[in-house]
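Section 4.2 – Deliverable D4.2 (structural model, holo form)

The reporting period included a commitment to supply a predicted holo structure for the target in complex with zinc ion. Inputs used:
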Amino acid sequence: MADKIKSKIGIEIHGYLITKEKLFCRCATNYKEAVPNTNICPICTGQPGSKPMLPNSEALKKITAIALMLKCRINLKKIVWQRKHYDWPDLPKGYQDTMSGAYSVPVGENGEYLGIKIREVHLEEDPAQWNPDTGNIDYNRSGLPLVEIVTEPDFSDSKQVSKWLNKLVLAMSYINALNSDAGIKADINISINIAGKQGERVEIKNLNSISAIEKAINYEILRQAELLEKNVRVRMETRAFDETKNVTILMREKEIAEDYRFIPDPDLPVIQIKQEEIDKTEKTLPELPHLKIERFIKRYKIDEDSAAVLSSNLELANFFEKITSKINAETAARWVTIELLRILNWNKKELKQVDIKPEHFIELLEMVEKKKITELVAKQILNEFIPKSFPPAEKMKKASIIEGKKEITGICEKVLKENKQAVDDYKSGKQEALKFLIGRVIEKTQRRANPKIVYEVLKEMLKG
Ligand SMILES: [Zn+2]
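Output (structure tokens):
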């Protein structure tokens, strides 16, 4: 059955933009760490008489950057903030300010990312967080800037959707645009066709993780296919996904566009993006992850897996490129993707959270290449590079093995003086006293003394 099904899937993705302040007020955006209802003011709690401030310019810049990354045409037309009205406990003003809605002009449109067409990209404010079980509302989230990315129904299965979404989130991380800790929320629309039998478009609302999106699509395709197979019509409707039961549930039949009574918000200025701003932003955009992977393979002759791992994090990719200025690319790729990631993961840190200087990393690898140290020693030194790296050669000098008889003799003399009892014990025939004395010497040298030489020296000294 499955091979006859042709699905058309489109997504509307909502993600939190990374900004310091909310969209229309100065309140902080760290809603997760903050105590509930502390990042608030009269504006974002919708007090009577309060008026929004000018829209956050950082959010506008980021939304333009996102639209450009997704190859959208940026609208030079006037963009009007619209009030989208609905009654819900999480919406103190009674409306949400958005760039979407009937007759709206989005920031970007007609884009494309990895073979999927982007219909539009726009900005809106988040409502508050309402807990239907307790009735509590947290206004920390009210007024946070949200990006909405709407695709055309170009996807054909759930795996394609989840892969694409992961790559989208990665690309957004390159411009520090999307708060990946906050996750994404999505609405999905699916219509299927089996051997000429066409179902109508069904929408699934409020999916809040990539895995839920994947499961909901899989369930919905099978549900619709079963109906069509039985010659039952698949009607246009809106459904919700029950994650515990892994099924979609009918929310409302027939998709009548809800009446949100969109009207332009008279308290907010019309936005007009200038061509020079677009040109300026375009210059700052980083290379997209999939293009970086291609370039790494071609330029550095490394395998695709390593290129993908390096490109999974912009700082890591940049770090690797710095290392390749002095170290051959294959060695650099191996040490960055395996050893550096090993110590970062072990310490639960990201590269940007620690201070590892590329020149120290290069010096370490050069010492291995010149066989001054073994790989094992290099790995041990690397372990100590967190939280801050250091010149490894200097460290090695301090950590070098002590083998000079003269130096060892000096230390042994001290140890014998300090441990008269053990000396007497040894002289009266207790062999284990020697072991104890060797241990003391090794300890005194921070384990740097060669034990064999210590043994020989002590034995000689204890003879006399
Ligand atoms: Zn506020």
